[in-house]
Every structure is written in C-alpha cells, then in structure tokens.
Amino acid sequence: MRHIPTVDDLAADPVTHHYDDMIAPSGLTNLLGTVRVDHDLTAVSAVTFPPVSQGLTRTAASFVDGRLVESYGAPITHEWRPDRVRRSVSLPGLDLTTVTVCAPGETGIAIDVRAANTGDAPRTVAVTLSLAAGAARSAEAWLDAVAPEERNRAAAGPSRLVFRNGAGTAWSVQGVDADAEVRLSGIAPAAGEHEVGIGGIERGGEITVRLDLAPGETGRFGYVHTVGATETEAAEAFARIAADVPGAVADAETYWDHQLAAAFTPGNDEFSGHLPVLETTSEPLRRLYWWGVLGTIWFRRDFKDNVLGRSYDTLMPNYWATTTFIWDYSLSSITHALLDPAVMRRQVEHWIASDIHTHFGTSSLTGGPVGRWYSVNDYAMTRLVHDYLRFTGDTALLDAAPGGRTVAEHFQDWAHAWQGLRGSSPLADYGEIDNLLECVSSYTHEVASLNAANVWNLRTLAEILTARGDADGAAALREEAAALVKEVADLYVPGSGHFAARQPDGTRVPVRHVYDFSVVGTTIAADLDDQVRREMVDFFQRELRTGVWLRSLSPWDSDASFSPRPDHQWNGAYPAWPADAARSLVALGEPQAAIDWIPGLARSANQGPPGQAHFTEEAMPAVNGGARKAPPQLPYIIDWACSSAGSYVALVIESFFGVDPVVGSTGLDTSRACIADLDPDAVLRGLRVGDRLVDVRADGRVIDA
Fold first, then answer.
1. CA distances for 560 relative to 340, 544, 551, 569, angstroms
2. How many other C-beta atoms lie within 10 A of the C-beta of residue 560?
3. Which residue, 181, 182, 176, is CA-closest to 245?
4. Which of 297, 316, 310 is nearest to 259 (CA)?
5. Does domain 15-188+200-256 have CATH number 2.40.50.140?
6. What value does the mean pLDDT of the chain take?
7. Per the count of CB atoms within 10 A, which of 35, 442, 447, 501 is most buried?
8. This protein's superkingdom (predicted)?
9. Domain segments of the chain: what residues?
10. Which of 292, 264, 287 is nearest to 650 (CA)?
C-alpha cells in the first residue's frame, strides 16, 4: 500500500463527451502558469504565464483532412492527471491521441499528437491547427475575473506563427516540431476595438502537418505554444521545448511525482515545510486527504517577478489568475501552515500591511488590492494567524509590525471589528449579498455564521493573551464572548436545525444554509444545548447532505429559486463546504455521521482537484459516481479548480485525529479524536507541531518521531 501518491494515484476517471456537453474543461500547471485543455483533440485556451496573459483566447483547434474535428460528432475521451491530459478520438480509419503538458520550468505548453491508420490501405493524413493569440502584458494588477488580452498580429515563420501585441511587450510563438505548411489567415484586421464576443477571437493563421501512414502505422508531431515579454524569450522557450516534445511529456511526469513526494518529506527542496503522511486502511479517507493536498499544491505560483516570491492563487484555469483571496486561503489554513509556513507568513504579513476591509485579496503581480470587501475577512485573518502560530510555534510573528503596527495589535482589531458593524442590535450587520455569499439573496445582514465566528475570534485572542501572560485580558475576552454567544444563539429557529438572518428592521428571515451549519458548528458547538445540536445534525442530514456531495442551500428554502450558481445554492456546493460540514458534524457530537459520509464524498474526488463548485446528483448526473464539476460558462461562471481544497486536510488532521495545538504550548491533546471509529490502526506520521515532529495514532498516542 502506497502512502505517498504519484500522478497515477491522483488520475481522474476518463470522461468521454460530445461537443458542448456539460463538462468543465480541465486545467494544467507547471507552477509558473496555467492552461485550459478544451473539448477538442488539441485546442487549448487561457494560456497564461504571468506577466503575459491571453484572457480566454482559444487556439490550436484541429482539422483532420480539412474538416473540423469537433464537427465529426465523435465522442472525445479526456484522461487527466496532474502532469498531463490525454485526449483521444476515433474517426473513420483513424485513431488520434494527444498528450498535453505544461513544460516544467518553461513559459509554455507542449502537445504530442499521434495518428494511427486503422484502415487497410496507405493514406496521407492532413492535420491542421488553427492558431490565434491574445498576448497582453498589463502594467496593472489583473482586476477582472478574466485576465487581460489584446489584439495580436501574426507573422509566419518556419513551422510556426509568431504573435505580438501592439506595444511589443507580449509575444506568443506557436508551431510544430515537424515540416509544415504555414498560412496566415488572410483576414483583414478589424477596424474597431478588439473584443472577444460570440464570434470568437481573430485567427492568426494555420499550420498543417501531413503524415504518410501505412496500414497499422502511427505517426506523430508536436505542437508547442510559448509566451514571453520579448520575442527572444518566447522564441528561445519554443526552441527548447520543440527540440524534444516527448521528452517534455516525460519530464512533466517526473516533475509532478517529485512535487507530490516533496510535500510529504521533511526537509524537502520544494516547500518550507511538509505535510504528515496518512497511513490508513480506509481508501476513501486516503483519497480525500490526497485530494486536499493536491488541490493546495496545485495553486503554487513561482513565476518570475512575483512580488511575494511565491504565492498561492485561488482559482484556475479560467478566472482570477494572480489573485489570492483571503477567504479561500484561510479555508486551507492548516495545510499552508504545515506545507509552506514561510510563504504563509509572508502572505499574511502582506495582507496585514494592507487594509483588509477594502478588498477580498491581493495581486501577486503588483501586491495591490483586488476586489471589494468580504465580510469574512476578520474571521479569516484570525484563523490564518492562529493556525500559523499553533502549528509553527513562531510566536515572534505577534511582535512583527507589517504596516507599522504589531500583529498582536491587529489581532485585537479583528477580534473587535464586529463592534463597529452593529446597528440597534448587539450583533454585527455584515451587509448585503455582494459581501457575503453573492447568490443567496436572503443571506444578508445579521447572519449566524460570522457572528458565531466573532465569539470564536474573542476566545482565540484570549488564548493568545494567555500565552503572552495576560491572564486578566484573557478573562475579560472570555466574559465578552460568553455574553455575545447568547445573542448569536437567539438567531436559532427553534425546532428547525437552522438559523435566521436578522434584517435592519428587525425582521428575522429563516435561512437554511450550510455556511451557518458549518461555522456555528465549528466555532460554538459547546455553547449550544444538546437539543439544538441534535436538531442541527438532523437538518443537515435531511435537507443538505446528498450521497456524494451536499446542497449549500436547502431546496426547501424560499431563496432556492434565486440563482443557478452551484457554489452556494441548492444545486451544488463550493468545495470546502463538504469538508467543513463534516468538521461541524464531529464538533456537534456526531462523528459517525461524518464517517458514514466519507465513502460518498471520496467518489467525487474523481475529476482532478476540487472544483470551485460541484453539482449535486439531482441537479446534474454524476460523473462515474462523483459529483460533477460545474462549468465556466454563464450562468454558472465556475472554475475548474479552487484552492480551498486544503479543508480536507484539516478534516483529517484536526477533526478525525483530534489534533488541536494550543498557542504557546508544546503539548498535544488528541482526546477529541474519532479516527479509531473509522480505522483503529490509522497513523499520522511526521506531523510537525512547533519544533516537534510526531506520529499521532488512532488510539490517541502522540509519539516523537
């Protein structure tokens, strides 16, 4: 039994589909940039290697013998792994396969194209790739969901087309590693401003490779697409990759196996920390744990001129490249604290030096703010710093002063920020839908989740003051929290299992949402009486949980008709919500309910890293038994992968193994563990807590490694 995954262990189930089926196109990364792998045999979109972007520009659509491959109506099979996507299709007398990779260490991609003659006569197969580019280099942060793109002009070269933007600051070189016919499109440049609309992007031209194949013979060529801030950068990268496309494919597998091994290896050469190895006979639990690890590593970005040196993006491959959202990063907080604590500290200090009440994240291109304020930010920052402190033991962070004030002072601000948001009620008013869940119109103003989080923030600050010797200050905070938690509990709708959102006029609007269930359960479960806890669990099991995923909003909620977005509505869930709901079940005293759900959830880890949302089974048919990823197009606008995947790591470490370090202590109390009910022989091996490296066993023993 393998305890450290390889790319084969994390391979998605093959997905076979026709043109424009409800399938989210997958993504690839080499941690320098990203690409979207489209339905077509060779087409790719959004080839993005900061600082050069191309929006969602699509290129390399394939024609075989002069006909668009998509138009044949033949199903195309996609097989994703972290290192590559293999695509295959059978046409009359011809089997075609491609393998797409992001070339390690390069600002480009490679596609190995192979055609096999399955007929009984020799034939010449003409494979044509239609090429386009939208290379751009913005001097500003990428402030929109879709990265910048510009009109490019193409020039023909040997077996390639060279694209450039008007200023000559962004270049794309696309071509093949074989003799080829190269033709410019011949279309007169549009007179108006560049706009990608229903007609797509302006074509630059096309490249045709002819393969002479005997019966049963297979021929090949490679397509390479590189970008750069100068023609020389892009051309040199093209030459390096094109010199050995099959070698680039092999290198990608080696590269990703190394990343995965490094993530679990103390003292590795890739990360400033590592994650513990999970030894368990439960294949579903192991699968979810690895899913969370992969989905965090997947967003590491080491591109040249990253202002933070290294950052972790939030979405890919369609939206918000180079942006790190505070909220999503916090949902993988424990994972970051263990895997890459030096990067986490740098990111947290960067946010502290900014005004977290004016944006939802920051750009790794400029360091500047992106977007509007999210109501969760104070809770998210408290959680980030707390997890960093308790797992690293680096309490010196509290005395650091990014932006001129100490982190300890900022911690006080976050714990009391709610007081400035009160109206006539003792609870904080968190505003309207754009500051909260965006697609649930009733989830506004005085919501139970973030007000419960304020109780937790106060108690967390008390823990830190205790560690710093301020017993009186800690006691005052605990008294404040005890008074506030009674007001939060007043939002509960008796007998229902869910809470109400109080509006400015005092109206209480019942909201049957998983976010209340998860945050209330993971922050103030011990303050709720037994009946309320039982009712909350019953509500979750009855109205939110499905076999392999969950509904963010109950379909019995009046607001279920408001929006089709599956990240927070009835028809699906954001990827962290199942993990956090399972954590809440454990905290509410029903660990068996979480354990029973694990095999179903694990079936949804079959389409690459967690998506920004997966549909429930009743909204969309499952993919080989797993909850289907939602697609990027309207009205869903959901990305293929999301960085909050680390929440599944937290579920295993914190909830199932009961690992809950206290700031300022080297001890480790695992008395709340429930893993023995799932696997009595399970072990977390090599967990770092401060300066200790320990093994945590299912029976509660903590042994220095």
1. 39, 12, 10, 6
2. 16
3. 176
4. 297
5. no
6. 96
7. 447
8. Bacteria
9. 15-188+200-256, 264-704
10. 292
Query: Any idea of the CA torsion for 462, 464, 662, 575, to the nearest 10 degrees?
Result: 80
According to the model, what pLDDT value does residue 200 have? 56
Averaged over 382-402, what is the pLDDT? 97
CB 389 within 8 A of CB 663: yes
69 vs 130: CA distance, rounded Å:
12
- The CA-atom distances, in angstroms, between 632 and each of 16, 36, 455 are 18, 11, 37
Q: Higher-confidence residue: 584 or 437?
A: 584
Q: Provide CB contacts within 8 A for 681, sequence distance 6+.
A: 280, 281, 698
Report pLDDT for 705.
86
Contact 598, 282 (CB under 8 A): yes
| Residue linked to tokens 């119109």 | 441
* Half-sphere exposure of residue 585: CA atoms within 13 angstroms, side-chain side: 26
> What is the β-pairing status of strands 181-184 and 702-704?
unpaired
Neighbours of 188 (CB within 10 A): 6
CATH class of 264-704: mainly alpha
Residues 397 and 388 sit within 8 Å (Cβ to Cβ): yes
Cβ contacts of 230 within 8 Å, gap of 6 or more: 171
pLDDT tens-digit profile of 47-62?
999 999 999 999 999 9
CA torsion sign for 404, 410, 413, 414 is positive
Token digits of residue 571: 């028809």
